[in-house]
Amino acid sequence: MRLTDLSMKISRWFDPAAPLSDIVISSRIRLARNLASRKFITRCSSEEKNEILQTLKGVILNLPSLGDIFFIDIEHGTTIERDLLVERQLISRNLAAGTGPRGAVIAQNELFAAQINEEDHLRLCVLAPGLNIEKCWLRINEIDDAIGSKVQYAFSSKYGFLTACPTNLGTGIRVSVMMHLPALKMTDQLKKLFESARDMNLAVRGLFGEGTEAIGDFFQISNQVTLGISEQQIVEDFQNLIIPKIVEYERIARDKLLASELNILDDKIARALALLKSAKLISSHEAMFLLSNLRMGINMGRVKEISIETVNELFLLTQPAHLQINKGRPLTPEQRDILRAETLRAKLN
Amino acid sequence: MHLTEIVDGHRTESHLCQACAQKEGITVKSQLSLNELLSSLIAAHQQTDETAAIEKAGKVCDDCGMTMDTFRKQALLGCPNDYKVFEDDLRDIIEKTQDDNSLHIGKTPPLTSSEEAESKEKNITEELKRRLDLAVKTEDYELAAKLRDQLKALS
What we know:
B: mainly alpha; 2 strands
């Protein structure tokens, strides 16, 4: 498996046929795990990290139920390769920027990723397009048990799975759902969303998780509490209460825009499309904002001539590492802005 | 990034790309992250007399050499044993970041010593009973019924 094979295609978690996918881009669950009788990453020597890496890599690569998977050595990869995996949401920025022996086992279909020696020894992650949290849980629970019957996890009866940071203690679970909420933004209701999220102990983050700002009206909603509540309960709350409620608010906001602010809406969408079709230089930030408006236009039936698949594909193809890997060489920011604009013009005209 | 500066009543607007903004030392803070919250809690915790006394005692984990002081700096623990060694210091931090919870009620891994598994079941039963009492006291009967079912399922 070469990374260029990944960079040319669209991620499976961008599937327009998935449930509620006009608003919910993807669902993901990650579990934080550590090996018993081993130090956590911050206190490990390079040798110890390597032992952990080899142990976990061996166990995961030999699991029969995972299908086509491959291992990527993050320590010896190039910056662009690491960034590509971050852009495709397969590894965290933390793993990309870390030091020492570390790696990731990734499924060919990109719906499973195991990061080794990130903040914890093991971070398992299962993704699904649209609102599919229950499906993610069944899958990741199965994988977790398969690994947990080969190696002993650090676990205490009181605190559950022991993690390097106490904020992950207990279940070690983080459910996070990526949502596209342009209408809530246009109708000035994001503040309300953030406030109620805080009241419910939820975190709202940008596209690439912790510490990243929201780009182009994409938000990741995730649980903060991991102790004293069961995995099942968190999953059910997200699947049946929290996310459907936010989807409903976004729909109401979209209906309101269609009913009473059609000119403003159409103007925004038309401007986005015009710029994307004609710009000669465009930053990834600006491209994301404009593609976000275009995506809203298509999903609200205001743009008919462009498919949602094309827009989803462009979200990835216009990212910095994707541009460089597909071009086959490193590019300066200005060269990237030119190539990005070219890519957009070619796909949209 | 759009920057508006007002100096002596004169308004200047500049538009900077992210890299230039960083060069100028301008950053935009996003929502307070959990780690930042944790750091501030840890820092607050540092100032109490109780922890100062423990600090003097100089508790160190035999397994990994961790001290509370190091934990305060990096917000990450050194090994699983730290949860036992620093239990008293961590309790407050755990409860504050975990919505006042202090007991795991989720899954148990396949390879668990029978001792841990048994004690987990006992802990959960006690915790559920405690929550049931509270639910009855606060007349939250819907929750009480749910907890009663959970207790039944365990016995």
